[in-house]
Amino acid sequence: MTNRNDPDFLNELADAYAELGNIRHWQFHQSRQALSDLNKAWQLRMRAIALQPKNVESYKQLSLTLMGLSEVYGSLADREGSLRCLASSPGKQSPHD
To answer: How far apart are CA 17 and CA 1, in angstroms?
Structure first.
């Protein structure tokens, strides 16, 4: 199994992107860069869920990533972005598109 098909690796990589996004947003006030990082985390988590759809922990981490995206969109007063986060779920479009 290659790394791109390993749900554990994908979740670990998503954790790193999510942490980077949170740091950029909360400590450095780089909200646009934070959105990019959090969107990468979202994409990786969705891939991990596609590979292991019964992994409850992946869904939990996905919800935390979506919450982070929603917080950044909220700080930017981007109502549409916030609404996309609320509507996002496995099988749907990226909240950053």
So the answer is: 22
With CA atoms as reference, report the closest residue to 17 among 50, 70, 64, 82: 64
Q: What distance in Å separates the CA atoms of residue 82 and residue 77, rounded to the nearest whole number?
A: 9
How many CB atoms sit inside 10 A of residue 92's CB?
Answer: 10
Rounded to the nearest 10°, the torsion over CA 8, 12, 14, 18 is: 150
**The pTM is what?**
0.81
Residue 43 in tokens = 């994409």
Q: Supply the pLDDT for residue 20.
A: 97
Both tokens assigned to 61: 């981490």
Taking only the tens place, the pLDDT of each residue in 24-77 is 999 988 989 999 999 999 999 999 999 999 999 999 999 999 989 988 988 887
